[in-house]
Structure formats: structure tokens, C-alpha cells
Amino acid sequence: MSEDPLSLAARAKKMGAAEADGIVRCDACPVLCRIRPGRAGACARYANEQGRLVRTDPVVLMQRTIDADGKLVAFAGSAWDGAPLDPARTFITGIGAGTTYPDYKPAPFIVAAEHAGVDTVTVVTEGIFSYCGVKLKIDTDRHLGPETAAVRVDGEEVGHVTTAEYGSQMLSIGGVRHLTGGSKREGNVTCETLLQLCSGEPVAMSIDGGRNLVVAAGQAPIVDGKPEVRMRVGCGSATVGIFARQWLGHVDEVIVVDDHITGVLTEHQSGRVLDMPPAGIRVRGRKSTPGRYFKVAEPGLGWGGTSITEPLSIIANIDAKLAWPGLRLLITSTTGEDALYCVLNANLQPVPASMPAEVAAVIQRIGENCEPALCSVLFMAGAGGSLRAGVTENPILLTRSVGRGETTVTMGGAPVAVWPGGGITIMVDVTRMPKAAFGSVPTPAIVAPIEFTLPRALYQRLGGHTADIVSIDEVIRAVSQEARVDHWSDDNPWPFASDARRNPGS
Ligand code: SF4
Fold it and tell me: Where are the beta strands (DSSP E) in 339-388?
């Protein structure tokens, strides 16, 4: 009986070449492993099985649990039971599909299916990404290290601290310079770090002049051994504005300590609008605008991401002409985790006192308004030569079509954000992708699934490999026994829905 041309073994065989002594040469990446019988190649993704090159991981099919009418159907919440897959609810991902290296081969699967009366094509492949990295968002106020400082794993430089965002510290990990431009060990450690981050595994890293971290996608960051709990409610100025009315009548002054913008209520516009009298308490740092101060201390692990651990040290002076004995002062961080209530004595010195219930309630509300601190991992990559050539003979037409939003790009079925401008530069939230979606090869580079879905007529106009189109029924028949079948995540837009066009992840 002849071998099904779509089967795992047959697809892999197309990539290899038999040599003497049963050795098979794999050409699925530039390493060109010569694999002995019974052994695997350097990446463990391909093996020599009785003289045949085989892909060691199963292709991943995803089965939607909602039908075209929006009704919930079979096996929701349980493992696939081996029943025949419904083509209308099945998506073929690039996971385990194989690659198009070295450039001129059509993608492993070019799948035709009809959805809502439209003939569609999904081009399915694994991309080998040398130009790739991770943008890591760490929800914390704490100072992790100076901007541009090196981020290290096992002593190797794998990235750097980049511009902080609102309530989050940002790291840029990987990229072609670390993968290819340093020592061999730097490239390998960088590649392994990317693979672990994209696979949701925890990674221990250190920042030059900064902190030790443990980060994992979707998990709380651990800073110097301490798990972070809360993401701040806002900057110091925003916190003053949000809660000003709730403090009115219960305190005479509030200082919200923040490494970037410390807020002082009675000077702030919100205090003025509420007719709060000036309290005369001047904080350290550089005044930006009324009630907003920059650089009140050095950055650190203390209150509000500053080095402050003694909150009263933020006070530069108290104006005796404005302050008064009995003045009620609250100092808090932007998460409410640190808070001190004081009353000025006869000498106008702040004396810590028991916090009134009304003030404690607002501190508690600040905490309620803080979201859980998480690490977010966005894989970012550029679709290069072999990948695009596997879709069409004229890759610029694909690039333009993706840019116009006519062709939907997904990674393991997850939506991607496509950067404007030239090329196909994409970002994807790795937690929206199926498990074990990523791999690596020792060039070093990351292997990731990618799918392009578009109307069949458009695919023809783009110069697609139409002679290699197969129906989804044929693919299911050929691979379902050797495939892994996952449930489609209903949080992800269905790529065949008309509103999935125009890059839903962006
Ligand atoms: S590293 Fe993996 S993909 Fe590359 S040639 Fe070797 S077995 Fe094939």
C-alpha cells in the first residue's frame, strides 16, 4: 500500500536525504544533521526511524467546541475521544508541521476549507526564527535595574532593561545580536532562555546593578526572592487624584510616594478643587507642576519603587506659617502596601498615630484597585525568506496582503499583532498558544508555528502554491491518528470568521 503523502513520515521524508549505512541527512534547518538509525538530530525534533526521517512531535490540530451557529458541541472540557474530527470546527496549527527550509519548498500543509460560504486556504508551517526575541512586562513598581542595563542568565548577557511602562518594568530578551553576534555560549543560553520563557517555564535572571528575578509567563514575578503581589493603582499623582474626595475630611495632607511622580494632595489640582488649605509640608525632589514631584529619592525596593524605607525622610521641611499642630498626615505607597498615619505635634513634628478607620478604608481600597502583579511574555519575530517562500512564489504580495489585513496571521491559532511598515513583524502572547508550541534548533534559532489564512481566490492572486492545496478532509484523514488534538481556546478569534481579518491581536 502506498504511503499517504500527507502523513507525518512522508512529509518528513521529503525533507531528508538517505545516505550510506542507513544514515539520513535532515535538511529542515541549516545544521543539516546526519542522523544514524534509531537516533535523533541535534534538536531532537527529527529522528531516523528505520532509515526514514520522521518528525518526533505530532502535528497539533485544534477542535473548536462551538459550531457555526454558536452552539456548544462535543467533548468540551475533556480529552479528545478519538471520534472523527469535524472539518468545519478543525484548525491545523503549525506545531509539529515541519518547516519550509531551505526556502523553495511549499509549506507542509496548504489546506483548503469552506467557511461561511467562502473558500479559504490556510498555509501551515513552522518558522525558524533567527530574528526573534521576547518583550517581558513585569508588573512592579520596584526598581529592577537601570535602563539599558544588561540582563543575564547563567552569567551570559541575554537582553537588557528597556523603557518602563505604567506600573511595569520592561525587559527586552533575545534578538539577533545575542543569538548570533556574541560567543557561541551567549547564543545558546539566549536561545534556551527564549524557549523557556515562551514555554511558560520559570527563568532565573539577574540585572547588572540591579536585582535577581524569577519570571514566568502568567505568573507573579519574584524579586530578590520575594514574590510581587500587587501592580500599583497608578502613579503618585494619579493615586492622589483618584482618592482625593475619599480622603477629604479625614486627613489634612496625603503624600503618595512614587519613584517617578510623587503626589502631594493639598498642592495637587485635585486638592485645590476640593478647597483643601495648603498644609505647608514640602517633600524632597524636583517640583514638576503643583503637587507633582520627580526624583524624591533614589530608585529602589522601598516605598513606591524608591529607596525610601523610612517614609518621614521624604519630608524636606514643614512651613510653620502654613502647617498647624494636630494636622493629620497620611503617607502611602502607590499599592497601599505601605502606609503611615501621623499627627503633627505642638512643634509641628509628625508623630505616628493609630490610623482612623475611614483612612484605613481608603488604603484598603487602593489595594482593591491594584491588579495582581504578573509577568507577560510576548514573542516577537520577523517572518523571513523560507517561511514566506513556502506560502507564495512572490513573497512581497504576501507581505502587502498581511499589511492590508486581508490575510490573517496566527501562531498556533493565537492572534498576532502585526507591526505596520515593512516586513511581517509579529508579536504574540505566548499564554494564548497551545502547550509545547515552541522548539529550537542549534543554529541557534527558535522554531515556532505560524499560519496564514486567506480567501482561496486571494491566495491564487498572491502567486500561492495552488498545486499543493489539499482539502481539510484529506489532512484530517491522513494525520488525525498521529496528531495531538487540543481544544480550541474560545478566547482566541476563529481565524475563519470575517471579523478575524485585520489582525485581531493588534
Ligand atoms: S537540528 Fe534538527 S531540524 Fe536542524 S538539521 Fe538537525 S535534526 Fe534537522
Answer: 339-344, 350-352, 375-382
Q: How many angstroms does the Cα of residue 224 sit away from the middle of ligand 1?
A: 38
For 47, residues 6+ apart whose C-beta sits below 8 A from its C-beta are 35, 38, 39, 40, 41, 53, 54, 56
Query: What amino acid occupies position 455?
Result: P
Distance from residue 33's CA to the centre of ligand 1 (Å): 5
Ligand 1 center from residue 57 Cα (angstroms)? 13
Q: Are 239 and 256 in contact (CB under 8 A)?
A: yes
Q: Tell me which H or E stretch contains 25.
A: strand 24-26
474-493: buried (b, 16+ CB within 10 Å) or exposed (e) per residue?
A: bbbebbbeebbbbbbbeebb
Cα 393 to ligand 1 centroid, rounded to whole Å: 25
- Residue whose CA lies nearest to ligand 1 atom number 7: 41
Q: Residue 10: which H helix or E strand, with range?
A: helix 8-13
pLDDT in tens, the chain (506 residues): 455 666 655 555 456 677 778 899 998 888 899 999 999 999 999 999 988 888 899 999 999 987 666 666 755 445 566 667 899 999 999 999 988 777 678 999 999 999 989 999 999 999 999 999 999 999 998 999 999 999 999 999 999 999 999 999 999 999 999 999 999 999 999 999 999 999 999 999 999 999 999 999 999 999 999 999 999 999 999 999 999 999 999 999 999 999 999 999 999 999 999 999 999 999 999 999 999 999 999 999 999 999 999 999 999 999 999 999 999 999 999 999 999 999 999 999 999 999 999 999 999 999 999 999 999 999 999 987 778 889 999 999 999 999 999 999 999 999 999 999 999 999 999 999 999 999 999 999 999 999 999 999 999 999 999 999 999 999 999 888 889 999 999 899 999 987 655 554 44
Tell me how far CA of residue 151 lies from CA of 125, 144, 485, in angstroms: 32, 10, 37
Q: Is the peptide bond before 221 cis (omega within 30 degrees of 0)?
A: no
Q: What are phi and psi of 378, to 5 degrees?
A: -110, 120
Q: Quote the ligand 1 centre to 30 CA distance (angstroms).
A: 7
Tell me, in angstroms, the distance from the centre of ligand 1 to residue 55's CA. 10
Side chain identity at 238, as an amino acid letter? A
H or E element: which one contains 425? strand 425-429
Mutate to test the pocket of ligand 1, among 101, 441, 446 (most ligand atoms within 8 A of CB): 441
What's the whole-model pTM score? Answer: 0.89
Atom of ligand 1 nearest to the CA of 101: 3
Ligand 1 atom having least distance to the Cα of 41: 7
Which atom of ligand 1 lies closest to the CA of 442?
1
Residues with CB under 6 A from ligand 1: 26, 28-29, 31-33, 41-43, 45-46, 441-442
Please list the residues that pair with 223 across neighbouring strands: 213, 226
